[in-house]
Amino acid sequence: MDKAQVHYEVFARRKANAGWTLEIATENRAHAVEQAEDMLAEGRAVGVRVSKETLDEETREFRSLVILTLGAVDKVKAKKPRDDQQPLCVTPSDLYSIHARERIGRLLDSWLTREQATPFELLHRPDLIERLDASGMELQHAIQKIAIPEAQERGVGVHEVIRTFQRLIKSAIERVLGDARKGKLPDVDRDGFAQTAERLTQQPDRVYLLGAGVAATLSRGDGWSEKVNRLLDLADAAPQSPAARALAFEVLGQPLAEILGSRAGLADLLGGSQMDLGQTLAAMTRLAAAEEVELLIGIEPAVARVMPPLEGPAARLANWLDGPHFEGVRGAIAKRVLGELNGPRRLRPDDAEGEIHVLRALAMALTAASGRLTPLELVQEAFIERSRMLVRGDFVEAYLGAGRSAIGEVEALLWLAENVTGGANKRAAARWISAVIDALRFEKEMRYGPDSPAAKLAALADLQIAVKRAGFVEEEAAPIREKIGLVGGLVEADAKLVAAVVKAGAPVLHRLTLLLRLAAGEAAPIGPAADRARVEAVRMMRSPMVRAELAATPDAVEPIRDLMQTVWLAA
Q1: Residues 172 and 212 sit within 8 Å (Cβ to Cβ)
Q2: Residue 238: helix, strand or coil by DSSP?
Q3: What is the pLDDT of residues 339-372, one digit of tens each?
Q4: Cys-Cys with 472: which of 99, 318, 477, 570 at CB 3.0–4.6 Å?
């Protein structure tokens, strides 16, 4: 059987008392399953169902086989139909709304992908309409699938809804084909885009007519990138008068948003069909917020390493999106980026550390562009949701890997904690850190490891400082700092480091400096080790002989004056 005769359909139940709604039809089984799982995970549906549809060559009807059901899939109590409920689309013009185009794109996803066309083009191009009409069951099957949930919602018969949709589609087809035969559809390549837009400004159906001219231009584009180039060529040639210019960009924004909304179109434009989700989101962010990303790249090397360069049509589009036009397109890109961040897919499936780098760069870029691109509150909510994934057990296990020392795990977890947001996620990160430092392994490695006592104490001091940077509330941070300090006290006691410094034959200033650094939490963690160093430092500063020596060398004392004051006040 031909592969084109088998496809997969994703149905969703939006609410517990709602019926099934067809969301997407595709020939890619993995894509259908992924879409269903994403909808359930993101809370966009309470139940999902994936069915395999196989065309019977003899009867020319599709046989359905359910291959996946998740969530609330049992039959629910039907809602009482509303007497005043009307079909969503009544006239051919209704099919041109953004919601209708989105539904058309889902119903005919596989066919449009094969044709490398958007719903906008299908609604305006006579050649595409004729090919779809001649394709056999594609259109009929789409009508059947949309008619079932529509009939359930309105409380009427399925066949009645099918006949309504058939009449509507027939009228829409006759309208486009009739206008083409009568020569009403403009040719913007021949007549000029600016002149055509100016001429149509006063027409009642100006958006439809200019859209037909734009769709004709797109039909001559070979591939998605070429279509974007053609749209930008038309943008360059847009009229200058306010009314005509507004009309031009209203029309151009429709197919542009649809191309960027399709995975195939976006992958072709960004030049990376093999890019992982993190690279794709980084490229989309750079596309929609080019100015902010360029500024960040100049001051943040971490952002420069993550953000892929934009070339060709993508770079050209980024320049246009940076201006006052295509606000809807820019907003659609931002919405998709935030949607993916709220979703369950990994940004870097095989590189947990790289995923944190990507997320950090995205957070900086989207925060910098918030307001112009999307509200800051939505950005924060998306990163709180994504942070929840970073503190889950499977991610932490993949992130830490194998072979790290105990202190290496704490350092890695502290860096992870710096890059998650949200109170619950911070608490989860703190629990992971506490689990490592409270384990006997951490104490044993620090006390009996190969490094020198001074190096161990300095490393523990750095950990305490990192705990402050992690953004924990005091109730979470205090036990971690205390445990690090206690381990530092054991390390110092084993080596008797403070006593050795006091008895060393080095100059007084050198010994005092080291004791002060130990006492202030720079060379040892705050805790027993720092306390012992503080006692000895204060005793030394009170010695008349030492005070006389320090007074004789005021220039040498100046660099440690702040340390001396801190330790003296804490004594």
Answers
A1: no
A2: coil
A3: 899 888 899 999 999 999 999 999 999 999 988 8
A4: 477
Residues 134, 124: Cα–Cα separation, whole Å: 17
The span from the CA of 75 to the CA of 277, in Å, is: 36
How do beta strands 62-71 and 20-26 pair? unpaired
Are the beta carbons of 32 and 8 closer than 8 angstroms?
yes
- Tokens at residue 346, please? 């990994």
Summarised one tens digit per residue, pLDDT across range 458-484 is 999 999 999 999 999 999 999 999 999
pLDDT, one tens digit per residue, over 139-166 is 888 888 787 777 777 777 878 888 888 8
Identify whether the C-beta of residue 176 lies closer than 8 Å to the C-beta of residue 212: yes
The predicted structure's pLDDT at residue 212:
95
CA distance 363 to 292: 12
- Name the nearest CA neighbour of 315 among 294, 290, 279: 290
pLDDT confidence tier of residue 531, bands split at 50, 70 and 90: very high
Q: Indicate the range of 217-226, 376-385, 503-512 predicted with least confidence.
A: 503-512
Ramachandran assignment for 43, one of left (phi > 0), alpha (psi -120 to 50 degrees), beta (any other):
left
Alpha helices in 87-157 (DSSP H): 98-107, 109-115, 119-124, 126-133, 137-154
> Nearest 5°: phi and psi at 69?
-135, 135
| pLDDT at res. 82 | 47
pTM of the model: 0.74
Q: Which amino acid is at 151?
A: A
Q: How far is CA 198 from CA 185, 194, 240, 249, 522, in A?
A: 15, 6, 9, 13, 72
Residue type, 394: D
Q: Name the DSSP class of 260.
A: H
Q: Which is more confidently placed, 314 or 41?
A: 314
Q: Contact at 8 Å (CB) between 213 and 186?
A: yes
Cα–Cα nearest to 291, from 326, 327, 328, 322:
322
